[in-house]
Design brief:
Elements (H helix, E strand, L loop, with lengths): L8 H15 L4 H12 L9 H14 L3 E5 L5 H9 L5 E6 L2 H13 L6 E5 L2 H10 L7 E4 L6 H10 L6 E5 L15 H15 L3 E10 L2 E10 L2
Parallel strand pairs: 1-2, 1-4, 2-3, 4-5
Antiparallel strand pairs: 5-7, 6-7
Helix pairs in contact: 2-5, 3-4, 6-7, 7-8
């Protein structure tokens, strides 16, 4: 019997598809959004189907009514979370690229979900400052999935826009295991490691990381809850 570490990516994908077909069946609106992202030449970095369903379940588990998403891309993850909101729930999502925001807006409109979502265009750090200054928080769930070098700043702003009980989710923290390389100078790795160190040192947070294998390969989510 081969060691578990020898299991190949095609097995991960098959398992992802097995559970996805049962628990997150192919949905026309979500498939259309994914296809629209490809036709618009957006980078193929959105969450997978099962990761999207995880985000939806987290929204439902936390009974979140106000969600903040940092990094919209084409709105695929936004759609998953919007579907988990209760009546009257809202998502504020932040996107730097005008083209990405345009595609996301159209995807959300086509899915009948745009009324639940506000898209804020501009640098995320600038938008976060405005949200804080205007008293937009607190948010019940915050999903961070934008440029990785800025993750430490995003976490700091997330704490300012949170309340006790707020869930914070950060995508792409494992990075094919490269996050363990202390001497790696890649900005994405440096930003991810610094963000995780801040999580570990922050007494207001209880956090963990879930490693994920599946259709997108090997990565993971950081999951945290604000204690006070």
């Amino acid at each position: 019997m081969a060691p578990r570490g020898h299991i190949k990516n095609d097995v991960w994908t098959a398992v992802d598809n097995y559970f996805g077909d049962l628990l997150a069946p192919v949905d026309p609106a979500l498939e259309a959004a994914w296809q629209a992202n490809r036709e618009a030449d957006l980078p193929a970095i959105e969450v997978s189907r099962m990761q999207g369903k995880l985000l939806q379940v987290l929204v439902q588990m936390t009974q979140a009514r106000r969600v903040l998403e940092i990094g919209t891309l084409g709105g695929y993850s936004t759609m998953w979370m919007a579907r988990g909101l209760p009546e009257g729930g809202r998502i504020i999502t932040l996107e730097f690229n005008p083209r990405h925001a345009e595609v996301a807006r159209k995807n959300l409109e086509n899915a009948g979900l745009l009324h639940r979502v506000e898209i804020h265009l501009g640098r995320a750090v600038d938008s976060l400052q405005v949200l804080h200054a205007t008293g937009a928080g607190p948010f019940d769930l915050i999903f961070i999935d934008a440029d990785k070098p800025s993750n430490p700043q995003y976490l700091e702003w997330a704490l300012k826009l949170a309340r006790p009980g707020t869930a914070i989710v950060v995508d792409n923290v494992v990075r094919d295991g490269k996050v363990t390389e202390a001497d790696n100078t890649d900005a994405d790795i440096v930003g991810t490691r610094r963000m995780t160190e801040l999580m570990a040192a922050e007494p207001r947070l209880s956090a963990t990381v879930v490693q994920i294998v599946g259709a997108k390969g090997y990565d993971g989510f950081a999951l945290a809850v604000v204690l006070s």
